[in-house]
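wait is this the right file?? whatever heres the structure
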């Protein structure tokens, strides 16, 4: 779930957050995601779309993000090295840089 490069303080925060959330919440979210199907709607997205994923994410592996990228016109895929599932927590520097670059490239 996390990259070996994840800083210890980030691991501590994530573990605290996970243990403080009721299990039922986790299972309800997982169930809703498991049953969610929008593949046929992705081609209708008509705005620039940034898709980011950690290369070592084993919860939502990069191949799922590649599928999104293939189906969403005008999308950009960024696979972040040395990063797992918690992209925003593990590599905020890269996330910020990529968002700024994406917005500039889109004319914002």
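ok assuming it is, sequence goes like this
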């Amino acid at each position: 779930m996390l990259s070996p490069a994840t800083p210890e303080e980030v691991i501590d925060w994530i573990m605290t957050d996970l243990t403080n959330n009721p299990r039922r919440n986790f299972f309800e979210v997982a169930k809703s995601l498991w049953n969610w199907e929008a593949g046929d709607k992705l081609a209708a997205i008509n705005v620039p779309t940034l898709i980011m994923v950690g290369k070592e994410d084993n919860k939502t592996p990069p191949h799922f993000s590649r599928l999104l990228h293939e189906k969403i016109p005008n999308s950009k895929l960024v696979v972040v090295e040395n990063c797992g599932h918690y992209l925003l927590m593990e590599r905020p520097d890269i996330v910020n840089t990529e968002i700024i670059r994406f917005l500039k490239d889109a004319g914002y």
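The CA atoms of residues 24 and 30 lie 10 Å apart. so i think its the right one actually
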